[in-house]
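Budget justification note: compute hours in this period were largely spent on complex prediction jobs such as the one shown. Inputs:
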Amino acid sequence: MFHLSQMDQIFLKSLADVVRTSRTTSQYDKLTFTTQTIADIKNEIQSRQESVRYQALLKLFFLAMEGNNIRWAEFQIINLMGCADFQLKLGAQLAAHLVIDSQSQGLIMVTNVFQKEFKNGHVECSATLSCLGTIANKDLSDSLLTHVLKLTTNTKPLIRKKAIAVLSKIFTINPLNIPGNLEMVIQQLQKESNISVLACGISLFCSVMKVAPKLYPLFLSIVYDQISKQKSNWLLIKLVRISNKLISLEPRFQGKLIEHYTRLLNQTNSKSLQYELVYSIMKYFKNHSQLYESAGDILKQFLNHQDPNLRCLGLECLTHISSSAGLMEFQEQILESFKKSDYFSKLQILQLFKDFTNQQNFQTVIEFFLKYSDLESNHKIIESLIFIIMKDKFINVDDPEKLLLVYIPVIAQKIDTIDNAIRFKELLFELLTRVPGLKVYSDQLCNQILQTYAIQSDTLQGPTLNIVQRHTQLKYSLNHREIIFKSLIMIVGESVKLLKLDALTNIIKFLEQLNILNCYESSLSDIDSLLFKIYIQIIKTDPSNDIIPQIEQLIKNIYNKLHNISIVKISFFYESFILNKTKEQLQQLYNLYAEDLPPINLEAQKLIKPPEGLDITQSFQIDIEEIEKIKNSNNDQLEQKPIIQQLEQADLVSKEQEDQNTQILKQEENEEELKPLNTKTDPIPKKVFTINRDEELPPGVNQNDINQSKEEE
Amino acid sequence: MINFILMVNKQGQTRLAQYFQFLSVKERMTLEGELIRKCLSRSETQCSFLEHRGYKIIYRRYASLYFIIGMDLEEENEMAYLEFIHNLVETLDKYFENVCELDIMFNIEKAHYILEEMVMNGQVVETNKTQILAPIHVLDKAKDE
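Corresponding output:
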């Protein structure tokens, strides 16, 4: 410790000086200024003059707020806690939380300091209790417990209040201190009339219930007593909060509270108390219809309120209604609230509907969100809608046909992110896989969705997904439109055999309109595959159709564009097949495989031992005489095979007819509401589609195709 | 339980910080910087509640100063704490008479003392302005004498 000279005192900087200098100092000089100030403080805090030390302490405070580390001052601050000057002591106690934590070694010195302070006046004692509440660790709390317990009986409510607040920390740090001591505190609280002390007592009970919930019977009577007579909103909020915990442990307590909750709900104007009551009633009082209805009315007011905070709290409250039937009651208000809400509240509402949409409100929910999506929340809305549709294997969907032809095209038009495009693709594949018969509508779906692709700009924009195709090693980028385009092309390709000639012709005309060679370069192999399937189908049904030359031209253009060797090889075959279309080509194909195949490569067999009895030098061409023998022996079986097949087909047809006859008539369609969403009128369904929710796929679907396509992506 | 109470201005400078759970200086600066950026990016039509780093954040803006409370994620009454912030501002205003940012900067120990009278161990212990300011008036009288 040293004494500052008069000269030094003149130049001593106060807190105000430091603040002014800090505000005027540039960013570059700040470090120099801070270093200099810390050096000054280190000197001043050891001064004998209390005024100097006090100013040093205040400057330390300021530096801590500026983000400087002042933990080096731990010892000095603890030292100041024990000095005679109250102002200095108070400053040190207020600064204690900045330098002391539960691991600090200086806490050992604090015990004696605090024991002395507890004997002083009420202002000093209360400041010491506040400091203890902030810095207490296990050792300090154990050594000061008896002193704090004594202070709970002090004549001053200020001291009693703070002593009880400190006790809640002591009991939390070391629950072994609870037995015996808690009962004493409860007895004192039962005689207590001061609201602040009671509020601290209720906080103490909340803390004890976190570490020792089985002690709840001790609190029941006092909590009930206070709920019935208290008028302070803060205290009532704490009482309702602790009542929630007590109800979950002791359900019979619920019945006692109905009368008081009803009274409070009707009388109070405080929004925070109303919210607390509504929250509690929504969660625990569902069986009490009158109270539940009153709370529901207030909740509806919250949902429609102008204040965004109350709307947010109303939605928060709804998440605790665990049934979708409960949510249906508030559906109208929630949807109205959605129109006025900000982005975060919209996310809350979407999450609600993700959890609680069912078959009854599925249509309303989908139509509403498609109508009111905006730029900011569009991607989240689409993500949520796809989730709702696909939830639990389409559990909410009762009309798959309407979903496919009415809602899905609108969803596709609104997709603007790659993630959503991939989700949309999965939705389409799942839906068409699980609902047999929907593939018939694949051409209509394709036309509806891809119609906008022809109208919009030819250049594909937006973020892209980079992919390397496994079998060709081609690298390309896809944006969200192209992902949807590829998936639709694949679906139509799978459904070619089910489509009529007109539908196939329309698809070809549509593909001609698109600038596919420039815009959909990454999808050319998929388009080529589709064109080939359509070509084969048209040749089978109508070989003289006018569209055939157009298909040939399209395929030629595509192969001219593609430079990959493996695709070019295949294209030679396709090209020759298309050009000649004669039996001679087929005979050539036959001859290609009629030749002797070369024997197994000896080099390859070095590592792999051939099976016993196999002569690898000889050709494995099958002996024709042997084939004739097998053929003759199985003649009877071969003759009967077509008859068996005919019988099986007849069975299938009769079964289908029976299914159709037993279906129920469809519900009415709401065309007007969907007009802005969809110009196409809903088709009158001729048959009802059932969704297969089994794990295995229905027969006729090749899982490998789906897996392969997923792998490619 | 309240984990921290902050008063931060629009430039990101902390004028008052009370932490009820110990955080290192680096953690505090990071947290305060992130919070003020989040609060500044929100418009007036948005609610005053958000979540950040495992805390439930309630904030309110008074002129250039943001009052921010960080609480546990477990169920708390956000509306009550929003009203508590207003109570705190009214108490500071009653003591400093037309309180502004400079009053808090130049009387930082008094601002801390008022806050300590209102909040202890992360729990609100007093909301009556007269009761809160009584000890500090006693101190001021003793100082004048």
